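Please, structure for the following, as tokens.
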Amino acid sequence: NLETKSLLPQHVGNELNCTSDAVSATATVFPSPPCTIDGSLEVCPDGEFTYMGPADMSSYLWTVTGNATISGTTTERMVTIETGQNCEGFTLSLTTTDANGCISNCQLPVSLNDLIKPVMANCPLLPVALPCNPAPALYAPSLVPAWSDNCGIASSTITAGTPVADAQGCG
């Protein structure tokens, strides 16, 4: 959608009434280049995620503010973001320049949230009757549940006396 504008001829004068010949010009107005950021609007804490800008731009410049950092280059179409460990979000910004030298800016606010519950493993299938003051070494391998999480939260150690239960009541 290239647009051409013609400027009307005008006589140019100054305070001494000196004038010049009529001046006219033609200007070409290029459309703004696209600026879009493709990627997830909600991601996990403590993870690595990629975002893409529009294709065929002459240059790209990525910046981020908030609970994330850019890993690697900031001047390619694709950028890699590493999120922090807490659930504070971040804003990803992109400046694109097209072949005509026209510049466009856009931003994408991203939330950090762990929406999927951890998955537990090693839960006893049946209740286990323990005698009074059992020796931990006898029961520890079969009774200590482990879990994994889609956001990369590592398993944690469970100590005696800590109540643990999953959605099915394993505990």
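The first strand starts at residue 3 and ends at 10. The longest helix spans residues 136-143.
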